[in-house]
Amino acid sequence: MTKMQQSTARSHHQREDTEPSGHSGLNRALTTRQVSMIGLSGALGTGLFLGSGSVIALAGPATIISFFLAGLVALAVVWALAEMVATHPVAGGHGTIAAAYLGNRGGFVTRWNFAVELLVAAGAEVTATATYLRFWFPGLPMWVGTCGAALVIIVLNAFSVHVYGSAEYWFSMIKVLAAVGFIVLGLALIVGAVPNVEAVGWKNLTNAPGGFFPAGIVGVLAASCMAVFSFGGIEIVSSTAAESQDPVRAIPRAASAMIWRILLFYVAAITVVLALEPWRATAAAGSSITQSPFVRALKLSGVSAAADVMNVVLIVAALSAANSCMYAASRMIHALAIDKQAPHFASRVNSSGTPTGAVIVSLACLAVAAILSIVAPSSVFMMMLGAATVGILINWSIIMVTHLVFRRRRVDKPSHVTRMWGAPVVNYLVIAACVAVFVALIWLMPVAVYAGVPYLAFLFIAYEVLKRTHALPPAPTVEELEQQGDIAHH
Fold first, then answer.
1. Among 161, 177, 215, 469, whose CB has the most other CB atoms within 10 angstroms?
2. pLDDT digits (tens, 9 = 90+) for 346-401
3. Distances 156 to 331, 361, 463 between C-alpha atoms, Å
4. pTM here?
5. Using an 8 Å Cβ cutoff, are 254 and 418 in contact?
6. Burial class (CB in 10 A: 0-12, 13-18, 19+), 476
7. What is d(CA 279, CA 259) in angstroms, rounded to the nearest whole number?
8. CA–CA separation, 71 vs 75, rounded Å?
9. What are phi and psi of 244, to 5 degrees?
10. 259 and 78 in contact (C-beta within 8 Å)?
């Protein structure tokens, strides 16, 4: 069979299993506001609410600049994603687009890397939820809390995408309100707008030991490397393309909303954290709920049971992050199954348009990640976390490379969406930044390199083995993506 015949057969097979929407049977039920909240949820995690002590320890007050620099890199990735995914709103998001523009190998590495990264993160979040529950129930076994949190996530992902979207919308709304409330309350404490509370002022920024740059430019850059990981998960917005009611408008709008919201939440929140107390105290406080800067702000303003309020927010934030990760990972695995690069049953969808097979595969991986995080949190799980950390850098780099090829292939074609500014220069800068962060990890987080390099090698070896043992269909063509995009555009 010739390559053209294979492509035709593959397209025919896809059309047989696809609803008129052209997206592998997935149901377009996500509204624009749900897509926006899902995208924001990927970047707004528990780390913000517990503080960023390890990052602040590297740069002191200048951590504000570090988060801003890391945010610029993340926003460039989001912008490139929005342009590609709104043009090609297909199942598998940027992973399927990478397969079309970079070939099967690029698509395989992109999609499995993203799925593994998300499932490890989801395992960490359900385990974190169990830890937060023990704040109220000290005797609660970790496995009980972990299984309970995982069950909630399974239920939300097993039914229609509308149920998932609604749940994630409200999860994210609670996180957004908590972040905004903290920023407003913190600013009120700083300027003296809270009755009977002396103004904190800006002295912790201006008169900090060692000045605003206690570790110099090197410290700012080192903190920027660590801050990058706070933005991991922003790519989740691309996974909503095939289930968005109006991807051409919803995806760019979600990306645009993320731009100013991420800058507001991270830069403003970190500024408030650093202003409320000396940075050395924040860096040394650890990640205890009672030591969270959010709790301190609540206590200073006279809010009773501040730690209990904070614990509710932390549980919601953890469940929300796990929910988003599970959703995006299952959609990536679903797209892989369509291309015979994951178990075939993962390509199946139920009557509501939910890829139940992919959810089951994701559940198995989530269970492994959660078990490892419980039985070996300081060794095996840290290795997994290191691999996931490198996974973020790999994912961002592939996204920018895919965007370079995307632009070259579509140079004479009209764009339905806002184009990313500064390409291709911005692409090369982001790729260089990812490489620089990876090199810096040799000193900042060695476990990421020790786990990440073998992990990346394993993905490439796995693809070569799969290619030799299975008759893989050719990668989706740009023309096929164009056809599906035209359906969505109309």
1. 161
2. 888 877 777 888 888 888 877 887 787 778 776 766 677 777 788 889 999 999 99
3. 14, 15, 32
4. 0.83
5. no
6. buried
7. 27
8. 6
9. -90, 140
10. yes
